[in-house]
Specification:
106 residues, mainly alpha, rod-shaped
């Protein structure tokens, strides 16, 4: 098989095509790296926002639990006061009945 020699113009055209393809490849590599950098920055931003949201939710939960504990304690104190008041009223009523029927010790 005989290969015909390339003319000078054909060699120059082939060389220019190779240079253009190398430039395009370099440009695509640069753009791919740039896109990867943007994606990494965006991922870090999303992770940071998620962390901040989780921290805020955790703090709100703590505050809510603290407030709930305080409300439960207040409710318990109120129930205790009502029970003591009711016990006192029952004792007074029983004493009044005893006194009215003459069974009181006074």
């Amino acid at each position: 098989m005989v290969v015909a020699p390339l003319a000078f113009g054909q060699i120059a055209t082939a060389r220019n095509s190779l240079i253009t393809m190398a430039d395009q490849s370099s440009q695509l590599s640069y753009q791919a790296g740039e896109a990867a950098g943007h994606a990494q920055a965006r991922r870090e931003e999303v992770v940071e926002k998620a962390h901040d949201a989780a921290s805020a939710a955790q703090e709100a939960t703590r505050e809510g639990a603290s407030q709930a504990g305080g409300l439960v304690q207040q409710a318990g104190a109120q129930v205790q006061q009502i029970a003591q008041g009711t016990a006192g009223a029952v004792k007074s009523a029983a004493d009044a009945v005893k006194n009215a029927t003459g069974l009181g010790g006074n």
